[in-house]
Amino acid sequence: EIVLTQSPGTLSLSPGERATLSCRASQSVSSSYLAWYQQKPGQAPRLLIYGASSRATGIPDRFSGSGSGTDFTLTISRLEPEDFAVYYCQQYGSSPFFGGGTKVEIK
Amino acid sequence: EVQLVQSGAEVKKPGESLKISCKGSGYSFTSYWIGWVRQMPGKGLEWMGIIYPGDSDTRYSPSFQGQVTISADKSISTAYLQWSSLKASDTAMYYCARLAYYDILTGMLAWFDPWGQGTLVTVSS
After folding, report:
1. Which of A52, A53, A82, A85 is deepest in the core (most CB within 10 A)?
2. How many degrees, rounded to 5, is the angle at CA B81 between CA B115 and CA B6?
3. Rounded distance, CA A4 to CA B71, Å?
4. 8 Å CB contact of A92 and B107
5. With an 8 Å Cβ cutoff, are A94 and B107 in contact?
6. Conformation bin of residue A71: beta by default, left when phi > 0, alpha when psi is -120 to 50
7. Tens-digit pLDDT profile for residues A26-48
8. CA-CA distances (angstroms) from residue B87 to B11, B46, B48, B77, B94?
9. Pick from A54, A81, A84, A85: nearest CA to A67
């Protein structure tokens, strides 16, 4: 099974700053089969990115995904107040696994 | 608008049974797999299993096989997650979500979108 490790666990930043979140897989992820989700307190997860770099419908272009193989990145170019949340990566597979999450908090 | 609406919060005692629901609308319910995901208090996301409402074909995560039952009633566009005997460790938020696609040949599941609002299950004596 592929294990996803997200880092850092918590990212403390100010609005307007750039956020860089990492998701590392224990084995190569086939064909960039990786998705990113955002979860705000008390809400369900929301799909942001699929196929490692494709934005889901309605997702602002300040969110971007990149990477391949074992190393993937979610970048938020300029943090808006509504972007402070927990972010999860997920690899597709016979048993889709989620990373442990990165919390982006207001500094 | 594609939407999944889940049933309300439940408070149960250990040993009791429970069935929670997830109703889809805004798309062809029988054409997409529906998945269930568990989130224990303060923890991350765990995939439990999926069902294809068109023919009720069901696949379970090895971690949840035998622990829960997933079913669907396509006539009312609703998927279900049920327990026959709840444990305190089943206390969690449970989400249903539509699977973008599932490759039956390779067993590969894709991403989940959209998600239901969640059903909080509390099991306590």
Report:
1. A52
2. 40
3. 29
4. no
5. yes
6. beta
7. 999 887 899 999 999 999 999 99
8. 12, 17, 16, 29, 15
9. A54
Three-class HEC string of B73-112: EHHHCEEEEEECCCCHHHCEEEEEEEECCEECCCCEECCE
Contacts of A93 in chain B (CB under 8 A): 108-109
Q: Which of B105, B8, B110 is nearest to A34 (CA)?
A: B110
Provide mean pLDDT across the span B68-91.
98
CA proximity to A5, closest of A33, A21, A24: A24
Query: Is the CB of B111 less than 8 angstroms away from the CB of A46?
Result: no
Please determine, for residue B20, whether its predicted confidence score (pLDDT) is greater than 90: yes
Identify the pLDDT of residue A92.
Answer: 87
Instruction: Please compute the mean of the pLDDT values over residues B96-111 and round it to a whole number.
Output: 91
Residue A91: which of B60, B110, B115, B100 has the closest Cα? Answer: B110
User: In A, which residues are within 8 Å of B99 by CB distance?
Assistant: none
